[in-house]
């Protein structure tokens, strides 16, 4: 079983702050790294799927980087807004059809 | 385009009862998954399927059964409900054969009393 760790568990920031959080995963048997955004009372929505070492993806104010050699990915949010409040999940895909999810980072953006 | 549809949204069961959680997708996805989400524990994979007629166990399969007779449907069955199965259940699907994200249903909240 792959072990995917996310930190911090929770984070409170003020509107306008930029923030980032970490996803750590075993660097062996790596196939892809997924990021999902999960708002309360809704279902997870895909943000990014990354496969290549050094890969960077961006969607609006949210971006992610990937380091497969050392086994980590960062998710960045620039100029946080209250609507960014959600739990951010990462998941590693290890070459099978399965994803192993971390426990998530819960972000609260205070107006 | 409905995406992934789960029914019911909520259900209360008594210990020992059985029920089937329904999941249907209209995106012609080969891969389908069932997860449970417990507080502080993230998403745990129960069962998954890579195509009609093919299913396999995930991390926490005990107490559950699945079938995949069509590409569209992937029901999850609880045979003898136990309090430990109180959880929120999510179904997901994705295209197979390439690195694609999963699409999730809205979840089924199940309480067993």
Question: How would you characterize the overall build of this protein?
Answer:
- The complex is a heterodimer of chains A (111) and B (113).
- With 111 residues, chain A is mainly beta.
- Chain A contains no helices and eleven strands.
- In chain A, strands 2, 4, 5, 9, 10 and 11 form a six-stranded mixed beta sheet that branches. In chain A, strands 1-3-8-7-6 form a five-stranded antiparallel beta sheet, with no helix packed on it.
- In chain A, strand 9 (86-93) and strand 10 form a beta hairpin.
- Chain A is globular, with a radius of gyration of 13 Å.
- Chain A starts with a strand and ends with a strand.
- The mean pLDDT of chain A is 93.
- Chain B has 113 residues and is an all-beta fold.
- Chain B is built from no helices and eleven strands.
- Chain B has strands at 4-7, 10-13, 19-25, 31-38, 42-51, 54-57, 64-66, 76-78, 87-94, 103-104, 108-112.
- In chain B, the strands form two sheets. In chain B, strands 2, 4, 5, 6, 9, 10 and 11 form a seven-stranded mixed beta sheet that branches.
- Chain B is globular, with a radius of gyration of 13 Å.
- The mean pLDDT of chain B is 94.
- The interface between A and B is medium-sized, with 23 and 24 residues.
The helix tally of chain B amounts to 0
The proportion of strand residues of chain A reads over 45%
Shape of chain A: globular
> What value does the Rg of chain A take, in angstroms?
13 Å
Total number of beta strands of chain B: 11
Q: H/E order of the elements of chain B?
A: EEEEEEEEEEE
Estimate what percentage of residues of chain B fall within beta strands.
Answer: over 45%
Count of strand segments of chain A: 11
Discrete helix count of chain A: 0
What are the secondary-structure elements of chain A, in order, as H or E? EEEEEEEEEEE
Structural class of chain A: mainly beta
CA-based shape of chain B: globular
- The averaged pLDDT of chain B comes out at 94
Largest interface: A-B, 23 and 24 residues
Q: Level of helix content of chain A? A: under 10%
Rg of Cα set of chain B? 13 Å
Distance, first to last CA of chain A: 40 Å
Largest sheet of chain A: 6 strands, mixed
